Amino acid sequence: MQSERGMVECNGRDGHYILGQAIVQEEDLLHEFKGHRSISIHDIHNMCLQSGGAPERTRNAVSISIGAMLNSGYGGIIYLGVTDNGQVRGLTLTRYQMDHIEASLEWTLGRFTPPVPDSRYRVDFVPVVSNKTQRLSHDIEEHVDSKRRSRPHHVAQPNYCWCDIDAAAQQALGKLPILYVVEIHVRPWEPHSLQGRNLGISQTPALPPLHLNEASSCFFRQSCRQPRLCLEDVRRLLVHRVQEHYTLKLAALEHRYEALQHLARQHNVTFATDMHPSDVDDVQVKK
What we know:
This protein is α+β, with helices and mostly antiparallel strands. It has 5 helices and 11 strands, in the order βββαββαβααβββαββ. The chain has helices spanning 62-72, 95-109, 146-149, 162-172, 231-266, and strands at residues 9-11, 14-18, 31-34, 76-80, 91-93, 121-129, 178-186, 218-219, 228-229, 270-271, 285-286. The strands form 3 sheets. Strands 1, 2, 3, 4, 5, 6 and 7 form a 7-stranded mixed β-sheet that branches. It has a two-stranded antiparallel sheet with strand order 8-9. Strand 8 (218-219) and strand 9 (228-229) form a beta hairpin. It is elongated, with a radius of gyration of 25 Å. It starts with 8 loop residues before the first strand and ends with a strand.
């Protein structure tokens, strides 16, 4: 069965994916598949440029999808280690490489404009098993050296980090890392639940902010697409959001005003004749 996190299989509290099986969920407004783990646009090697040196890359950085989901306001989940057709391939990751992904996300989202608070996303590393009957053995644990784990990671560059070289050396010795699907959960915009951990402001705005990514580009999620917005697109989107927000707010005030009028008539109370629905909070009544 498919769990709330969109996984193919779920074994009680220990969720996992099955290698080669297709995810039931298709790419849409809230779900995006990536077969790689290049978080920032700076992680993309020049060899991934299209032929002829065109500026558009054949591999899009994960930060583009994150920015698009943030700007839509609906959030979503990005699956790393899943092909475009939804097939689970997984990514071989050591604990050090997991730390690298988390460090890369922190670095990249910290360079968005405005920076993305850590309350708006989380990362889950979900194991991949080879078949339905296989279960991960908890007796075989990766040896993690705390001193090595404290080493800084080289993020935002296309060359191998020390953790990748370490993983390659481990594989050469026959120690194969576990396969994982990396789920990046982008939380929807909920102002009242996002106060805090590193927002740096006392009050959260009612409308979701538009984020520019680390390359100062603005992307927006539309179905399974994420077009880049030009300045005029941004202006129109902001105008639409403001109009929609205050139209709904005015409708709520008018509904409250009508309810107060009905209540006043029941108790033979009259409102001041010069009152407007927007003055409901300062209502003065006369008997």
